[in-house]
Amino acid sequence: MEQNPNHIPKVWSPPTALGGKFGGINRPTAGARQEQALPRGDKPLQLYSMETPNGVKVAILLEELRALGVEGAAYDAHRIDIMRGEQFGSGFVEINPNSKIPALVDQSEAQPVPVFESGAILLYLAEKFGHFVPAGAQRAQCLSWLFWQMGSAPYLGGGFGHFHVYAPERIPYAIDRFTMETKRQLSVLDQQLQKHEYICGGDYTIADMAIWPWYGCVALGRVYNAAEFLDAQAYPHLLRWAHQIDARAAVRLGSALFK
Fold first, then answer.
1. 170, pLDDT greater than 70
2. Final residue of a domain: which of 132, 165, 195?
3. Domain end (from 90, 110, 132)
């Protein structure tokens, strides 16, 4: 029988021990792992999240809406500890079958509306309250950059961040591969922000709120402690924007909400 030189089977089966920081959490199947009811408050919006780059985006938007005095945007925040597997509790899985934070339940409607995926929640709330998403051609730009973040961040988080920080062994090929792509993305943003004050132009939008917790905080050295490794100083326009967003009171409140 021909032997596979890389010891990779024709049909994959999960290893007994994956290793790494998330090795004890990851499984190849979806669904609830334990019965666990979700807490519910009495505010119109119920946010379930944690202090991760994805997790703080919606909190930032809700704090921005609160700063504007938007009626109906009051919310209760409930911490979902993903390191303890609370995202696999039955109550959370009921509102987000994908078991990822953040998730939201809008209790202000006749029937509660669950929304999951950070980009979807940002867009839902921005449209519901009529703030931070522009109209016309600018709307197309805003959505383009919002979805750019959704498609790009897995390379930063699941790629660069995982192999640079969390993997049980240092694999030069993986680190080089994802560092190259991360720096290309930082360059994309730096070039865009050279031409515009904010991501989409002259207005602060949900695109900024989605991108800043990942790329802004990477540039500021708050995510993966990688600012020096990535030579963040080579992206001055990105850094200017990162500091500008960081100075907003609502951004600071939303970022610290679950800490």
1. yes
2. 132
3. 132
